[in-house]
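Protein record
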Amino acid sequence: MFNYYVVDDLAPAGMRDYIENAIMRGCNWHFGDSATGLSSSERDPNNKNIKESAQFVDLFYDMDEGVQTPMNGNIAVPLLWFLEDRTGLKVRNLYRIKANLLLPNGSEEHNYTVPHIDHGDPNAISMVYYVNDSDGDTVIFQNHVSQGFHNLETLHSNKPKKGSSIVFPSTRFHSSSNPITTSKRVIVNFVFTVDEQSYNEFIKRCIDE
């Protein structure tokens, strides 16, 4: 299993602008008063870095709920093709794809939203694609779901860069962060499984690098 993998410039320059414009003009945003929906019992009460945040969400695809919108085919699926081209990872099953929008909420640099996992399937992979240039890092933690959410240590903090992405196991704890100096932070979150052979070849390349 790998820790995380950053793909700079996943989308070509022209498509980066197309994606940003399409999402900001075409998303059907739904307001949620929590970025994760987790209860107080599902977080470490001793973690003083957590700052809960409201979040706007547009669901492009959900396997369990039978949701599939035009944004899935127009925006999301081409990004998975680019991922295959750059990493060799061949998507087998899609679990969920959604756009998330965070606004400034008075957070400081050490703050992040409630640490969470994206899926309990040990074979699932998550990808965060950054729609716009902003601040508000994606924080990747050392722990996987089996290790629990207490005493989390930061493994990597990834700054949003328009057109880039970060890939990591869906069972690894991670957090988003609200922007402080920019007006909004917009990402597309993917959860999927990949072909076993392509995954093994990807892991070998990660080791070689």
User: Anything to note?
Assistant: DSSP finds three helices and eleven strands in the chain. Residues 10 and 83 are 7 Å apart (CA to CA). Helices lie at 13-26, 70-87, 196-208. The radius of gyration is 16 Å.
